[in-house]
Amino acid sequence: MLNEYDYVEMFTNMMSEGFIVIDNNGIIQVYNNKAKDIFGILHNQQISHKSGQIENGDIVIIGDNAIGKDDGNLTSSSLRYIGVEDENIEKGDALIVVGVYGNKDIKPVYLYQKSKDITDTLKMNTSFLGVEIGVVVDFVNKIITIEVDSEKYTMTYINYIGHMVILDGQTKRMKFYQAQGYTAKGESVNEILEGKSYRAKGENSELLNVIGKNIFEIHKSGSTIKEFYEAGKGKNISYVNEFKEINGFPTICTLLPVNQGEKRLGAALKVEDISEIKRALKERDEALSNLEKMERKLDEEREIVEAFPNIIGESKEINYVKKLALKASKTNSTVLILGESGTGKNLLARAIHDNSSKKDKPFIHVNCGAIPENLLESELFGYEKGAFTGASNYGKKGFFELANGGTIFLDEIGEISPSLQVKLLQVLQDGSFYKVGGQEKVKVDLRIISATNKNLEEEMIEGRFREDLYYRINVFPIWVPPLRDRKEDIYLLVKSILPKICKKVGCKNKRISGESLNILLKHSWPGNVRELENILERAANLSEENTILSKHLTIRTKNKSEDLNDEILPLKKSTQKFEKRAIKKALEYYEGDKKKAMKALGIGKTTFYEKIKKYNINN
Length: 619
Prior knowledge:
Blueprint (H helix, E strand, L loop, with lengths): L3 H10 L4 E6 L4 E4 L1 H6 L20 E6 L29 E7 L8 E5 L7 E8 L2 E8 L4 E6 L2 E6 L5 E6 L6 E4 L4 H4 L3 H5 L21 H5 L3 H11 L5 E8 L2 E12 L2 E11 L1 H33 L8 H14 L5 E4 L6 H10 L8 E5 L5 H9 E2 L12 E2 L1 H4 L4 E5 L6 H13 L1 E3 L6 E3 L3 E6 L3 H6 L5 H7 L2 E4 L10 H16 L5 E2 L1 H9 L5 H15 L4 E2 L11 H8 L3 H19 L4 H8 L3 H10 L5
Helix pairs in contact: 7-8, 8-9, 12-14, 15-17, 19-20
GO biological process, one term: regulation of DNA-templated transcription
Protein name: Sigma 54-interacting transcriptional regulator
GO molecular function: ATP binding; sequence-specific DNA binding
């Protein structure tokens, strides 16, 4: 038959809140399972150890996010037990220490951070007396992890915590580790260091019996426990659903006196754990943050689509180009567009201008490779009347002057002669130049976008391109990938280009057969998008029906001897080609993880990043 206490225990254990009752002497009469769960008394420890106490020679490992806050009032003096004698360590500092209890001959290993200098994490890895030990205090996620020979002991916290692991000095095996509820059990870091016995942990260990104990034995001190005790003694204190902190746990508490007539029998405390609510709110905030990031990403993707309707493709490579181009359009920095002939560098330059603050100003496209060298200077900078034989009597404005306020696009900048590069450098440095035959400086305010299919670094080494000019134009580089590296865009390109070609040649709209599309996908495209346009135009002219068949595609395939010749490159170029392929392959294999890629390649960080920049590798 159930007695009166059994009924009370049964019904209070059914409550979803913690429930504690003390008598008028502060002795615990009721302490239900939910309260034990909140304060860690029912904590289910997975790793077992026997009861005992610390002994001389034991190895002590401590991770503390704020000394003296929730570790039994640990002080720098207490740390002398394990050989730490450092008066600079103060209350509130974060600390990691490994030392030997009661043996000053063995120097401890420790590090600490002042409370005002706290960073995201405090970490230490050490080999101490043959034991591999790692400790991480994670202030962001509020977790302290102590790892001993690959065995992890983790403690989460809300405000403050002192975490401890003790290893037997002889066997180097774990004999004690800190777990939730250490305050109630009287097993704080400081108490253990002062020699207090600790309880056993594990499946068969005895649970802490709190009934009949003084409330201060379980909850030490704190304003809420003091109020609870005083209410039990007879003081007129009560409240409903107030935020309180007990043993470092944030709670919502209701405190009520327990009376029999006029006599005060004790007090009851109902406790709701809001750490779970906090965690739920944190998860909600993280979800909202992720949602905002997704919305920003969608807005960016929408902006990219609207900004670059003429840059066709949805491959990872071309989307990265569009993303860079959008960023470039929002600045006035000099842009260098790199890529093979026929990749659409001129389209990209125009799109950057059209999306910039200068979109209503002139855009002047200059093909430096198409203008004879002896005329290029006068075309770029203009000339005064009578400057040379055949010069106009009125003089002439150059492209730079015509582009004033807007953008000048210097296509194939690698073709400019070294002598003309000096004059171009001056424009980039101070926005001024002299016309051919002129005596007065012309000032301009414009943005320069350059493009080339050459390797300007090699051109510098060979002395054909000035190093100072290269660094001036290479402020914001964008590499446009060849069509063979983004073949998944071919269908979209065909879909976009073919109707325009049909309109140009004056025929009805045509479609392309599946077999023809497969042939296009297998081609290596040395001429890139321009070659695709030419092939489609020829096919549109050859096709008499509404469908372009494989027989209408005039794609020249290479024979074996041509393939062989393609592979015979200068040794330097062959090495560079292999390096680039090896780095890209490593990055793809490790899904963009640069640390793993550089380790697999066996190269250092500096060399790795230099080569990524050199080969314009984007992952």
